[in-house]
Specification:
The structure holds two protein chains of two kinds.
Chain A: E1 2-9, H1 17-33, E2 38-40, H2 55-58, H3 69-75, E3 80-88, E4 94-102, E5 105-111, H4 123-126, E6 136-138, E7 141-147, H5 155-162, E8 167-172, H6 186-201, E9 205-210, E10 212-215, E11 218-221, E12 225-227, E13 233-236, E14 243-250, H7 253-260, H8 263-266, H9 269-281
Parallel strand pairs in A: 1-2, 2-3, 7-8, 8-9
Antiparallel strand pairs in A: 1-14, 3-4, 4-5, 6-7, 9-12, 10-11, 12-13
Chain B: H1 10-26, E1 32-36, H2 41-54, E2 59-63, H3 71-84, E3 87-90, H4 94-102, H5 109-131, E4 133-135, H6 141-146, H7 167-177, H8 181-185, H9 198-202, H10 206-218, H11 223-228, H12 233-245
Parallel strand pairs in B: 1-2, 1-4, 2-3
Helix pairs in contact in B: 1-2, 1-7, 2-3, 2-7, 4-5
The chains are: A alpha/beta, B alpha/beta.
């Protein structure tokens, strides 16, 4: 089975959801005309990234009666979509979220579970922490979504893998940094190291998109990629430029790679569970949080 | 582990910085920029970047000599204007500056220099309105960290493409972008009085202090680790203290908090809010 996957590395207007929505609809139109079956937008694609006190003013609800989601759900009858937004829950907590839309329905919403709040990042000040990591079924097989810092921790991709995801959909708004003598920023090299590692270790497809543009002095580096279950690069978008990149991936590669390399078959989940229980029950001094 | 070095990929820096100038100027509804061109390397590089980002016809380079300014400064600035094709304006600031200086016969060079720097700021901001262009800053990371700048003078700007490049890196990027060689090679000087040089005033060279700042700031070395890496204890101490003492030049003045929502503390928006 083949899947034509499109990745939007777009710029956004900070805090202006209606203008970003217009841009989404135009990009959806373009991806559809190119034959894409699944189109992925970056983290917070409907709002912009450094929102700070704008958070409560840009939040929306992934439902058909929401004015932002209504046209997106309508568009999802033509191709599947992943969009980035701020979700306000029933008790007025705000999450960095991505929604998977297909055939007019919301199939899954992921709330970012790791909010970087150190160095240049201040997400924990403005957002609530997501609390679940779950795979979900799509018409292309089982998939999982993670947002930026989520996949800087090894456990969320591992949980998705055990929960059945063969297709990892990863979204970022990654500020460019680390200028050296290399032609690529350190932040881009770091991300691509780990994307390749996940596709290799989990013998799965990894698709990642990241926004471009500037917010005050921050730049975002784009460079969307797809890696196949062998850890090989399928497609890579340009750095620092808006682009809609597209690749046809052969989902049967999962069969071929896993016939050669049965990492999933041999994964000893009860050993993991036993050791996790032991580690989590022992003295607090060696624990993570 | 290799020792950190200051080398940068100039093509990547050029792409990010021209993109920054183009995006951050046009998103506010402007399409033009003004730059005070001193004849030194920082403003030369900023002018090259702005001309590439916006088109030379959209950049106004302003030369503002004082009666004691070196004629070489004016000539070097002209080389930048010729090489980039930007628009230009030359205005002597002596008649604007001297009446104030004349009020205080004992005025120090430092005070006079600050007045000149602030007068140049006034002209740049006036031209900003007249030319409908944003004022581009030319301060580099070295001088920002060391506080080697006049507050509300040369430090005043609407946006700064060079503030995260050390002087050594400004030189590397200038070379790659074709800044005239005489500008790259001459001793850096604020040219506020005859014979003034940056390195003479600071007491060390940019090449030395940039290596130290790279470890202290970018790579988070402790002062002790910098000494172990081969820098003299007195040099490390002087630089650490200078960076600390000049923090006030790097932030907006503090506002005394009284209410539940105060600008700067819990009223937080980027400048790009809504754009």
């Amino acid at each position: 089975m083949k899947l034509s996957i499109a990745l939007s590395q777009m710029n956004t207007v900070l805090g202006n959801v209606s203008r970003n929505l217009e841009k989404h609809l135009a990009i959806i139109q373009q991806a559809q005309s190119q034959g894409a079956e699944l189109l992925i937008f970056p983290e917070l694609s409907l709002t912009g990234y450094v929102l700070q006190d704008l958070v409560p003013t840009v939040a929306c609800h992934p439902r058909a009666d929401d004015p932002v989601f209504r046209p997106l759900l309508e568009a999802s009858r033509r191709l599947d979509l992943v969009v980035g937004f701020v979700e306000e829950d029933a008790r007025n907590r705000f999450y960095i979220a991505s929604a998977y839309l297909s055939r007019g329905e919301v199939l899954h919403v992921h709330h970012k579970v790791y909010l970087p709040t150190y160095g240049m990042f201040d997400e924990g000040r403005f957002f609530a922490w997501g609390d679940t990591v779950q795979a979900f079924d799509t018409r292309f097989g089982r998939a999982g979504m993670l947002i930026c810092e989520d996949f800087w921790h090894a456990s969320p991709p591992y949980l998705l893998w055990l929960d059945g995801a063969d297709l990892f959909l990863l979204m970022s708004a990654s500020p460019g940094r680390g200028l050296s003598s290399e032609p690529v920023l350190e932040s881009a090299r770091w991300v691509n190291h780990i994307l390749r590692a996940y596709s290799s270790l989990y013998t799965s497809f990894v698709a990642h998109t990241n926004r471009v543009g500037y917010e005050d002095g921050l730049n975002f580096w784009g460079g969307a990629t797809v890696y196949d279950p062998n850890g090989d690069l399928v497609v890579q978008g340009p750095y620092h430029e808006e682009a809609l990149i597209q690749a046809e991936i052969d989902l049967n590669q999962l069969h071929r790679t896993r016939a050669r390399l049965p990492m999933l078959r041999d994964e000893r989940t009860s050993l993991v569970q036993r050791e996790m229980n032991r580690i989590l029950n022992q003295s607090a001094s060696v624990l993570g949080r | 582990m290799p020792m950190p070095d200051l080398n940068i990929h100039t093509g990547l820096a050029r792409q990010i910085l021209t993109g920054f100038l183009r995006t951050e100027i046009t998103r506010t509804g402007y399409s033009r920029a003004v730059i005070n061109l001193s004849g030194g390397i920082d403003s030369a590089l900023a002018c090259f970047l702005a001309a590439e980002a916006l088109g030379p016809e959209n950049v106004l380079a302003i030369r503002l000599p004082y009666k004691t300014s070196s004629p070489d400064s004016l000539a070097d600035a002209q080389k930048v204007i010729d090489a980039t094709g930007v628009q230009s304006l030359t205005l002597e600031i002596t008649p604007m500056v001297d009446p104030l200086i004349a009020q205080f016969p004992e005025m120090s060079n430092l005070r006079k220099g600050n007045i000149m720097a602030r007068m140049r700021m006034i002209v740049a901001y006036d031209q900003s309105e007249a030319f409908k262009g944003l004022v581009i800053g030319t301060g580099n990371k070295t001088e920002i960290l060391l506080g080697y700048t006049t507050l509300y003078g040369d430090s005043a700007n609407a946006l700064n493409p060079l503030g995260d490049l050390y002087k050594t890196q400004v030189r590397q990027l200038s070379q790659a972008m074709g800044v005239p060689q005489s500008i790259i090679d001459k001793a850096p000087s604020a040219d506020l009085w005859v014979g003034q040089t940056d390195e003479g005033e600071l007491g060390y060279t940019y090449a030395e202090v940039d290596k130290l700042l790279l470890l202290l700031v970018d790579h988070r070395y402790t002062p002790e680790e910098c000494i172990e890496a081969g820098f003299s204890p007195a040099f490390v101490k002087a630089v650490v203290e200078r960076v600390r003492r000049n923090q006030f030049k790097r932030i907006l003045p503090p506002i005394a908090k009284l209410t539940n929502r105060t600008v700067g503390y819990d009223f937080l928006y980027l400048r790009d809010w809504g754009t």
